[in-house]
Amino acid sequence: MLHVKKADIVIIGGGAAGAMAAIHARRANPALKVVILDKSRIETSGGAGRGMDAINTIPLPPYSDPEDFVEMQTKITEGILDQEVSYVYGERCPRLVQELEEITGRAKGDLFPVDERGNYQLRYVQAVNKPMMLYMDGGDLKRSLAKAVHATGAEVYDRTPVLKIFAGDGRVVGVLGFNIRTGEYLFIAAKAVCLTAGPAGRMGLANSGYLSNTYEFPGNSGDGYTLAYEAGAELVNMECYQALTMLKDFQGPACGYVAGTRGAKSTNRVGEGIGTHAYPSGDTRLATWRTFAEGKGPIYLHTDRLPEEVIRIIEHIQFGTERTGRYLFHKGRKQDYRQPKCLELAFAEEIGACGGHSSSGVNGNRRGETNIPGLFVAGDVDAGLPFSFLGGALAMGGLIGEEAARYAAEADWAGGNPRSRAREEIRDFEAPLRRKQGLPAHLVEFKARTRLQYYLKPPKNPEYHRIAVWWMERIRREDLPEIKAENYHDLLKAYEIRSILLVGEMMARASLFREESRWGYQHWRVDFPEKQREWDGAWVVVRKGEKGMELGKKKVPPYRRNFPTSMEYSYPKLSFDLGVLFQKAPHYQNPMGDPWTKARMEKRGRAGRKEGG
Amino acid sequence: MKTPKKKTAESPYSWLEVDRKKCSRCSLCVEMCPMDVLRMGEEKVPCMRYPDDCWYCDVCVSICPKKAITLKGLPYLIR
């Protein structure tokens, strides 16, 4: 059944960014009707669903300011950024901290630590020598945000992923959602749409082979990227891959931030430190790759050398927020943080795309606007504020709520009747349910993600990237029309594979288009192993064209300040001495052809390739 | 040969344990599981219907008002 509704603002995804967008939109203009559609439940959805223990990147006075933040961002993005967005974020941070205390009902010093002078206590973790990391006792952050959303009067539709953003006459028109519990469809005509649907966090498959063994919340399968692309939005930095150092097999944070900022050190097998900072920028990733390439893996995070008091703090955090299954993970392996080599780390086991942990996504500007009027973007699907983690999602989520409210108050309702287009979408979407038999969705997903991981993993080999595109096209053409869904839950899985394939193709094509190397490991092309001046200050833009995916080059907006745009690293020269594996020996030359088999084939009268084998 | 058990919503492969005496059948865990893994099963007690989608986030355990849920372990492939 298709229900039709109207809302001034529709928010796609009720994670940290979406929840803040709803709160700020309603606060900015209580007369507006604001609707959130979430694939999951807004109380527990997204990367912060189970809780968060820190805001990794937040400049706060008197210890750091927006200038410090922009300097850091300019450095780690190597100049590929819109500095204005970073300034806006930096300026909103002091207010954000107070607002989170209000939303959670926690006193100053309770949610975030303060020092003896009453200032928020920051830690060092970034690639600049300024403290910008703020610890947080945020186990229930999402529950508090959800409560605040409901209190504003915003309408919430849980378990309702969005299948399509409709755009027409150069602006957004509405969205189509589907309730995976009831099977009902919802078309909402909207003046403004806030896209806060998270990263593409289910791309390359980790070595365990478990489909939900993801660093990102696995519900974030890149739908936001696909929705934006299909609506005509521009995406940038799709070639800047997310490649992280993870707790091996758990695929959770390596806890470099939790343990590392409390005194723990990580080293490789021979005791060497890796990188100069814990920030997930290209230089540290390159150093990590190198240590494994040299046969010096694994990397261990050493907690056993810490005082008992600190170990207990780390356990309290790791087993109490984010993904507390970590306790069971270690218990099952009879591991204890007091033992040496308890925390084995792995690197780049799942290649993905994310705005907050990398810089890939929809190109949002300082107001969160995209190239489509009425479509705003924030959080991990947004490339406008790279490497900005939870803080970026919360602050910019709030900002786009305000901007969307301003836009919606002035905009008229779009004309036209997209219902017939909605029915077409529904027909395609439901096809797997109507088939009598076919491929299970999880098999197709496994195939796509293993191929992506194998062919996309840097160092980037252009031929492998072309093969990746071939695989995505082939699976789309041959396998998607064969998927059989048994129920609505399966149907969503089948739908998500479309996003995985499309984002994988964007990543591969953007990587081929940018004929240079940049961001250390994240875009290291073996055939162009240096940074090229002509790519300074330029994005690769991906968009949907009339004949398919189009790529282009676009200059980033002029910098307000000329901070350094480089990091200290150089690409390894891949010239290993591989030794001599086989002695040179004369080989017998076999004659071309095989008269014996040919004679047998002719005797049987079955010539031809079919029998030839 | 054993008689096959009556078919239920529960996957035979599960690492969720529910204390049936403590569980109030409120279904909060089913509503809050972010990956839609859980359903109400036999005796209206929650069970894992889609275990392969579990992100081992532990929300079900932490959110249960009766403390009736424990996870026995993690998904087999990552244990």
Characterization of the model:
The complex is a heterodimer of chains A (613) and B (79). Among the domains of chain A are: 251-347, no CATH class; 421-532, Fumarate reductase/succinate dehydrogenase flavoprotein-like, C-terminal domain (Methane Monooxygenase Hydroxylase, Chain G, domain 1). Chain A starts with a strand and ends with a helix. Chain A is 34% helix and 15% strand. Chain A has helices at 16-28, 66-76, 83-104, 141-152, 223-231, 282-293, 308-318, 326-332, 389-410, 419-434, 441-456, 462-479, 488-513, 595-604, 609-612; strands at 2-12, 34-37, 52-55, 122-123, 133-138, 155-157, 162-168, 171-178, 185-195, 235-236, 245-247, 265-268, 299-302, 343-347, 361-362, 375-377, 538-545, 548-555. With 613 residues, chain A is an alpha+beta fold. Chain A is globular, with a radius of gyration of 25 Å. Chain A contains 15 helices and 18 strands. In chain A, the strands form four sheets. In chain A, strands 1, 2, 6, 7, 8, 9 and 16 form a seven-stranded mixed beta sheet that branches. In chain A, strands 15-10-17-18 form a four-stranded antiparallel beta sheet. A four-stranded antiparallel beta sheet of chain A has the order 11-14-13-12. Chain B is α+β, with helices and mostly antiparallel strands. Chain B has a single domain (16-73), classed as 2-Layer Sandwich (Alpha-Beta Plaits). In chain B, 13% of the residues lie in helices and 15% in strands. Chain B is built from two helices and four strands. In chain B, a hairpin with a 5-residue loop joins strand 2 and strand 3. Chain B is globular and about 30 Å long. The model of chain B has no long low-confidence stretch (mean pLDDT 90). Classes of the chains: A alpha+beta (613), B alpha+beta (79). The A-B interface holds A 40-41, 43-46, 49-50, 139, 159, 180, 208-214, 217-219, 249-251, 322-325, 328-329, 332-333, 442, 489, 492 and B 31-36, 49-50, 52-59, 61-63, 71, 73-75, 77-79.
